[in-house]
Design goal:
6 strands, about 130 residues
Amino acid sequence: MRVKVSVVVPTLDEELNLPACLESVKWADEVFVVDSFSHDRTIDIARENGAHVVQHAFESYSRQKNWALDNLPFRNDWVLIVDADERVTAGLKTEIPGSATPAGTRVGTCGCFGIDSAVTTIARSTSTSS
């Protein structure tokens, strides 16, 4: 069974990086851009690419990402967080839906995948079932 994935892209003045990032995640079921009140075209670019845009004041990288996980209305159990200067490769795109398990059958609460040789915790099940 292929699991659908939601994507979160935190941003602040990312008009140069955002188009390629959003292109790399266009396969996702839904994409949220959590913007920290950008002064450039970041919000326009996100909307032009079909992303849901939410603004939230930046406190720290971890707090911004945790705020998104706790507050956004995800329709999927799995959320992939990708920084605007990162790209999801074709290999990672193929691996993620097959590696994430449907809600209720997972063993842990986090999954780790690599983007551009850096291993980052970027996927988390939002399901509360065990």
